[in-house]
Amino acid sequence: MRSPASAALRRARRLARKRFTDPARKRGLLVAFEGPDGSGKTTQRKLFKTWLKSEGYDVVTTKWNSSDLIKPIIKSRKAVRALSPEEFSLLHGADFRHRVEQVILPALWEGKLVIADRFLFTGLARDVARGLDLDWVLKLYQPLLWPDLVFYFAVSPVTSGKRVTATRMPSFYEAGQDITDVDDPVESYQRFITRVIREYESLALIFNFITVDAEQSIGEQHRLIRALFLEGQQRPWSKWNVDAVAEWLALDGARR
Amino acid sequence: MRRADTAKPRLIAVDGVEASAVLAAAKAALAASTPGAPAARGGISRWDASGIFQDLAVADDEAGVPSARTLLLLYAADLAFRLRWQIRPALAEGRTVVVAPYVDTAVAFGRAAGLQAAWLTNLFSFAPRAAERHFVHVREAHATGAKGGFAAFACDRTGGGADSRNSRRLLEETAARLRRADKGRTLRGGRSSPKPLL
């Protein structure tokens, strides 16, 4: 049976395809920065954004777990350590979906460049490190929105641990204490981040991330990112993105 | 003869769009499931035990309107909470739990909103199968003033307000999907209650 919602989705899919294949249209770009805590990706993201703006790009930044709607819900539950791995995963998936619909896709549709400080791969790496099934978690994020470029900032678990604990104590969930059963946050973090990095490394292979050696100097990393961006920005939009864009258009159709 | 107080613990699902009717049916199902054995009754697990939707309801308008997909991810998070703190502990203690609503209401809403069945099946794959599934139907969902439950909340949020045509249409479509799910289950030989609960 076909509902009115399905008919709207079919119309939106046609509109999305047309937009994707129109060479006269300036399309947006989506660049994701991924990596474990302490890998320096936020520093690189800020440098990259400054450079892009100097080059004339209209840049929008979105961070992990930052939607105005869902973030307070997650924050209050983290504070009382009330989340199971499934709840943790589902709530972060909801936060991501809301940002895709409210921030990322509107900006891309307007031809802006979106930098995502962490993307859905953060959810995958952390949730699988918490024992959840990769296939189940990946499907939560459907319809998938693929970035044009994913920079993965690779560091060892030891480096990540040293950098994170040099200035602060890892929080309960950051340290993975919900699943390690280790009382010491630093020790727990070391165990948990080892698992997270193992998952990231698998994802880097599966999804063809651009790996940046995050143990290099900040300047070297930044120069490499600029060069790789200039090479990579001409890629066509992934066909995978049609479904994600079409669903958003169908939701937001009246305004397009 | 089997003693009532050694009855096997069961997860009983009651689904529908009309919250007050679903609750009444849940109470009837609980009473019918363990006649003469109150100690074996685990109680009723209701929507939003986690308070997620209560928090959502008081969020600023500027935070943006959640889509059907976002609401269903939140529903699944709430259900995971209910399973962890209410349903599984009660079953482990040998009690019967009536879950009202369970998965069918959410799936019906998702399908009415145009989401794919495969995505919904994956989303709720962590939820154990109910030993019994009951459906509470209404002839015209919007005409009954269905409110207070997940279906009405979700249709209201995604359809543009309780009084909007879209919301009413979505609620009717959700109710129709539940009727079809009930009919399909009966045709496939699924277990249903011998007598109507209400």
Determine the oligomeric state from the structure: heterodimer
Number of strands of chain A: 5
Tell me the major beta sheet of chain A. 5 strands, parallel
The ordered H/E elements of chain B are EHEHHEHHEHH
Task: Using the coordinates above, name the CATH class of chain B.
Answer: Alpha Beta
What would you report as the Rg of chain A, rounded to the nearest angstrom?
Answer: 19 Å
Mean pLDDT of chain B: 87
The CATH architecture term of the domain at 26-153 and 210-255 in chain A is: 3-Layer(aba) Sandwich
Mean pLDDT reading of chain A: 91
Which CATH architecture of chain B is right? 3-Layer(aba) Sandwich
What is the CATH top level name of the domain at 26-153 and 210-255 in chain A? Alpha Beta
Greatest chain-chain contact: A-B, 31 and 32 residues
The end-to-end distance of chain B, rounded to whole angstroms, is 28 Å
Radius of gyration of chain B: 17 Å
Helix percentage range of chain B: 40-55%
Topology at a glance:
The complex is a heterodimer of chains A (256) and B (198).
Chain A: H1 4-20, E1 29-34, H2 41-54, E2 59-63, H3 71-79, H4 85-109, E3 113-117, H5 120-129, H6 134-140, E4 149-154, H7 157-167, H8 177-180, H9 185-206, E5 210-213, H10 218-232, H11 241-252
Parallel strand pairs in A: 1-3, 1-4, 2-3, 4-5
Chain B: E1 11-16, H1 19-33, E2 41-46, H2 52-57, H3 68-92, E3 96-100, H4 103-112, H5 117-123, E4 132-136, H6 150-159, H7 165-187
Helix pairs in contact in B: 4-7, 6-7
Could you characterize what this model shows?
The complex is a heterodimer of chains A (256) and B (198). Chain A is of the alpha/beta class. In chain A, 57% of the residues lie in helices and 10% in strands. Chain A is built from eleven helices and five strands; from the N terminus they run αβαβααβααβαααβαα. Chain A has a five-stranded parallel beta sheet with strand order 2-3-1-4-5, sandwiched between helices. The radius of gyration of chain A is 19 Å and the shape is globular. With 198 residues, chain B is an alpha/beta fold. Chain B has a single domain (4-187), classed as Rossmann fold (3-Layer(aba) Sandwich). Chain B contains seven helices and four strands. Chain B has helices spanning 19-33, 52-57, 68-92, 103-112, 117-123, 150-159, 165-187, and strands spanning 11-16, 41-46, 96-100, 132-136. The longest helix of chain B is centred in the middle third of the chain and has 25 residues, at 68-92.
